[in-house]
Specification:
588 residues; alpha/beta; 6-stranded mixed β-sheet; 16 helices; 31% helix; 24% strand
């Protein structure tokens, strides 16, 4: 019991991955011990101009960095490990435990970011148990997913065992032969699982998710029928799919050229670790394939999600320096669009078709299967673990709701589960689960500079620039509180029926009227009316506000206003004062 008589509680705090797909990050906290489970990233929406990477708000972790005892990584997808190099620039993590493949990918990322000295990477294998802090023991349980070397984890805590599935589907015939360790899950179910946190991505889809092997016959048929060059795009991290494509290339007597940095990186690591098995002679550099007949060429490339800078998107846009689409090319999209990417993918497919390519895509072609379990997979997970409490994770809101309904159909009472959002604090005891508090849970946006976070103000300015343009006003004001010259006006991207000359007049009048009416509020004078001090900053704020109001009123839009105010030098004060006193004497 705690000091106030209440039972000690485990805090579970997701910072990403709920009500969304991506940036999966979760905190487990007991007393002064905190561990992180995964730390992923997401990709920007169209309105996030200039943003390359979206991270969860890590304010709570930064404020409690003294509690961090370590991190657990379930697998090597970007939405689970991609945020780690950025976070390590802000706080240390004593140790990160994870599978060999994920640790190999992560090691390269940390070296590139210059933060390898901020943590220690430790590789784990199936059924390995590690201690993290004084409150947590974690066992890694082999599962099956769309990436090699993936784990479910059993977290032993002072209040009981919490099983976090990680991303999973139940594939009984995995390409690499590494089967889901269902026996171990069943053993935990027999001993007693306090809470199950389970992947909800496909909770709306009935049935089982097909095996990865089901893709092979369909790809084989497409490869056999392709008359010219073959281009295949898929997720770079789909190691099993890559192995399948390489085996089919060998079968159909095609040499492979790999295009795209992430694809090259994953294949190199996967071959070094033995997850991809093929001879060096299968590969050719891109410049060397030009000498081959088209029917002997297979190009394996990134860009299955229509990413703007990916190889396939640049090929479709005619912007790739070494690859151009030719009539007779067959392009295979061995991936389905992630929610939010559909328009980008469709646009890429259209552009490829316009250039004469035969594009093979779509669910009905059977050339892609999900890495996430459907309803029957989820039911089997619940049946094996038999949890007392249930927490659906990793999915959009409707997915979490449907997963909770599935759990209820399996006999878990509604009062024994909660549907939460990022930042919600769930307190778990031996006899209760409840949502108690909330921590900061917004977004941290990183642009191409990778040097810092794009603040909300900067993003709003970018959105304003993109949607309504920018107006720049430059005005020089003298010590008499008057315009020293006609203000300069520049418009960029502003759509208006107002003539430029009229808008120039309105700008001048707005500034002159405000100076005439309110100069005295900002200028301090001596008895002989000599100006000794002016609050130029306050005056600029007021002028900027009035100009913004005028532009909104007259243009019926809200362009970004950049107001530049030129002020006289300090040495001009006495000269201005002398001129005013001389003018006063002449007048008298």
């Amino acid at each position: 019991m705690s000091k106030n008589g209440t039972a000690p509680a485990l805090k579970i705090i997701p910072l990403g991955g709920l009500h969304e797909i991506g940036k999966n990050t979760c905190i487990f906290e007991f007393g002064d011990d905190m561990i992180l489970l995964d730390a992923g990233l997401a990709f920007p929406t169209e309105s996030m101009h200039g943003v390359n990477i979206v991270l969860p708000d890590m304010t709570y972790v930064r404020e409690n960095r003294h509690k961090i005892k370590g991190m657990i990584v379930t697998h090597g997808h970007e939405d689970h490990i991609g945020g780690i190099p950025f976070h390590l620039k802000q706080f240390d993590v004593p140790v990160i435990y994870g599978p060999r493949f994920a640790m190999a990918l992560l090691e390269g990322k940390l070296d590139e970011a210059g933060v390898a000295n901020r943590t220690e990477l430790r590789t784990v294998g199936p059924r390995d148990m590690v201690r993290v802090g004084s409150s947590f023991f974690v066992e890694f349980i082999r599962n099956t997913h769309s990436i090699a070397d993936s784990f479910t984890v059993a977290i032993h805590t002072p209040v009981g065992v919490v099983i976090h599935t990680g991303d999973f589907k139940i594939d009984h015939t995995p390409v690499d032969g590494e089967r889901f360790d269902l026996h171990r899950l069943a053993e935990y179910g027999e001993k007693g699982v306090l809470c199950l946190m389970s992947d909800s991505t496909n909770s709306e889809v009935p049935g089982f998710t097909p095996s990865e092997r089901s893709v092979a016959p369909n790809l084989d048929r497409i490869f056999a029928q392709a008359p010219g060059r073959l281009m295949v795009t898929t997720f770079a991290s789909s190691v099993h799919r890559l192995q399948m494509v390489l085996e089919l290339a060998l079968k159909h007597n095609r040499l492979v050229s790999v295009v795209g940095r992430s694809m090259l990186n994953v294949i190199a690591h996967a071959r070094n670790l033995g997850y991809i098995k093929c001879e060096d002679s299968l590969f050719l550099p891109l410049h060397a394939i030009r000498s081959l007949p088209d029917e002997k060429v297979l190009i394996l490339t990134t860009g299955s999600q229509g990413e703007p800078m990916s190889a396939m998107t640049r090929i479709a846009n005619g912007e790739h320096r070494q690859l151009k689409i030719r009539p007779g090319d067959t392009v295979v999209f061995s991936a389905n669009p992630i929610p939010g990417n559909t328009i980008a993918v469709v646009n890429t497919i259209d552009k490829l078709m316009m250039q004469g390519a035969n594009v093979v895509y779509g669910r009905e072609k059977g050339i892609h299967v999900s890495g996430h379990g459907c309803q029957e997979d989820q039911k089997l997970m619940i049946s094996l673990t038999r949890p007392k409490f249930f927490l659906p994770v990793h999915g959009e809101h409707r997915m979490l709701v449907q997963h909770a309904k599935t759990a209820q159909s399996m006999g878990i009472p509604a009062e024994n589960m909660v549907i939460i959002n990022n930042g919600d604090v769930v307190e778990l005891t031996e006899n209760s689960i409840r949502k108690t508090d909330k921590v900061p849970s917004g977004l941290e946006l990183v642009d191409s500079s990778r040097s810092g976070v794009v603040q909300d103000r900067v993003l709003k300015e970018r959105q304003q620039l993109a949607e309504e343009g920018v107006v720049t006003v430059a005005a020089a004001i003298d010590w008499n509180g008057q315009l020293a010259a006609e203000p300069e006006l520049h418009l960029r991207g502003v759509v208006s029926s107002v003539e430029r000359g009229i808008l120039q007049k309105w700008v001048s009048e707005t500034i002159e009227d405000l100076l005439s009416d309110r100069w005295g509020e900002f200028a301090k004078t001596t008895g002989d009316t000599e100006v000794v001090e002016v609050d130029w900053a306050g005056l600029q704020v007021l002028l900027e506000r009035e100009l913004q109001r005028m532009l909104r009123r007259e243009l019926q839009s809200s362009p970004l206003l950049v107001f530049l105010m030129q002020t006289p030098k300090e040495g001009q004060v006495k000269a201005a004062g002398r001129r005013r006193r001389t003018a006063a004497k002449v007048a008298s």
